[in-house]
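Need DUF4842 domain-containing protein's 3D structure for a figure. Predict it.
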Amino acid sequence: MKRKSNWVLTTILALSSLNSCTQEFNYDPSDEIMSNAENIFGLIDPSQDWRTVTSGTVTITANADLDDIAKVQILTESPFFNDQAKILAEADVTAGQTVKLNYDAPRSNNRLIAACIDSNGKYYIKGFNIEDENISFSSSTPATTRGLGITRASSSLPDLSTISLDFSSSFKSYNAIRSTKNSEWIGKNWEQDRLWQPVGSLNSNGWTMSNSVIYKDAPALSDEDAATLQDIFDASLSRYVNGKPRNNLQYINESSTVKLFGNHLESNGKAALTLCPVQMASTEACWCSIYYYYYRTADIPTGTTEADYIKALPKFKAIDVTAERRAFSANSGIAIDDKDPTFQRLHEYLLPFYGNVSEFSLLPASLLSNGYTTDGKLYRIYNYSDNKYHFITNGGRDDDLKAEYTENVEEQLWQIFENSSDGTFMFYNVASKKFLWFPEDQNSNNNRPYLNDITESSLQKYKFYITDSKINPTDSRTQVYIYIYNKSKCVKADAGIKLGTGAKNSTNEYREWTFEEYSPSPVAAITDFELPIALYPSDHMVPPSTTPSAIIPEGYRIGFMIRKNGGEGVSEKTSTEKQGCLYGYGELNTEINTYGQFKTAVSSYGMELNSPRMATFNANNKVYLCFEEGADTQYSDVIVEIGSSGETGVLMFDDVPEVANLPYTMCFEDRPNVADYDMNDVVLRCIRKSPTQLELSLIATGAQDQVYIEGIGGSLVSGTELNNKEVHDLFGVSNDTFVNTELSAGVISAVSAVYEVSESTTIPQFLTNIYIRNYSQAGNEIRVPEKGEPPFALIVPGDFNYPIERVSIINAYTAFRTWANNAYNYGAWQDSYDESKIYTNPYNR
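Structure prediction for DUF4842 domain-containing protein:
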């Protein structure tokens, strides 16, 4: 202890005046004690009682949405994905039963958690304010069904026959692009990695498609729902602690989905898989989109790792987070690039099944590989109108209709390529080696077909239909109609000199075309046409031709990736250092975790190269996906709920929380009139082991005097008796030895005993009766202070990290002095600490 000589002198003077060595020090605050305390704390509020708990009573009805209910509890915080939740009170119940529970809650808690627990240990929670008296789990919003095999009615799912996948709407991932030029990616098998976006239009059962994602309006969160989510995520993946980003990586690595399934879900085949964003707090969430993939483990070829197999799988767009963040902003009024902590639920996104991914195939760059075949014949194509023949001829855009040629006849000869699967045709001019093309320019004067090289990565505008007058397919090639790719216009002879287009369903001689076979052929016919490699590269993939399904069949693993584009199209400047594909499956992150901004997650925040970039966990019958799109390992940049109504489309997994009773820490100063208030001279811990048994442990001593523990109530059941025992003797060390108060010293195990007490005895009541006696200082007793006295003994809920040796509590916990000066300004002083000045409680290690 500091100032030891002053304490000795004061004691000698006091003892001389009293002529007694046995005079007890009853803590009538002397001028010396108060003067010393005020030098440290300032003026202590006369009404300060150093109370650290709030006592209350609440009535709970056990009616949560669980199959059975065996117990109710009051907790300090949500138990989901969180090992810090503690039990304040509990009772055995049956479903529907109402019970009254008394509790002592940490004074810093404004809210507590009521929980129902089933016979398997599964939790369902509801938060409540400290002043609430009655808790029911029945919601004010309509009841939801849980996704344990309940199928959403097919009438509420969209008809997906109007959408498809097209290679031209896919693009290489950042990983694929870097696989040819970045050393970290070269040879890592990312070359075939492509991101796919559906094409088409959709307006079915409330579902629509925009920005290549399928969605509908979702049921809005009620205030009660939003508060519950706040309770869950404040505890599980809180973004900040002590004003700094909280590293949540340890919780991610310990989750069962990471350990057992590589952070993948598994489809149950009974419901559609839908996602609902509920929070996008990151300032850069607006730079992101979420993609998904699926596969069957049985399809992985022998000798191929799961990671390498996934790299080549198609990744499908699920959520345009940029657009969703704008929608959130419109609701909250918070700019899309500001932190937005609000919980909302605006849209529900559908994740279709596009067919077995093993059916995706590499497509050679040719017409044949795109499904087009030719009969090998040459044709003239003409219109007869105004008593003249008008042949489609290789020429300029304004004079591509000519009279019949007798020389250079190949200028008027065509090969017809037909795609039997979709009924479209492509017209190839043998002289120019070009195709008929409809550009559909914005300038209406240019909206007419003409010959063109293939210059687009889609063949769409080169496709035509041959129909009858009612736009039905026909096998005839005489006086037929030629419609452009979307059947909105038909090809006509314009003034007899050029091709034009006419309105749909209009029939007259200017729109009638005849295909006349020409022989003998002056040139050899072709059987296929090689497409430009720049537009149809070697990794050109053909998706399955099956119609997408709203439900992913049973047995598929489903994984997720968040793609961050570095602000492209959103911010004024694009940062390539912040462009990357970040996967829930950690083995797919070994390259991106070495790159740009993302590598600081490894260098500064403890992430491994193969750490996951997504957390997956259950809470209240829901599954949540929580993404880390940056580097600070908060894992709450974007939070997504699976299934707005509880229908998940995936097998539910239960991480059963292990929740312990709330312990208490009791800290003593052994010399009140010269105390340095490091609050570690004697440190005790108490926790309830059963309704009638409390475990008391001596965990530290910073005393250098002969100090005894006294006043322990109850009878010893087991362990080492602590009552009337000297603290150094209990640890087996000399009186001048500090135990568990110095950072440089090793940790010595606590000494514990279990005591039998009345079931009605609370831990604060039990500890309040305990005091220490300092036999080196005339046998003085140090007890819990009276109102207005200095804090020479404190009872703190939890395993309190007390100050290190010779560091005052006001320096270790910077907000403590504010509370000392104002009894009503308790605040969250334990959250404002200097980590270098506190000793980690042995029970927190």
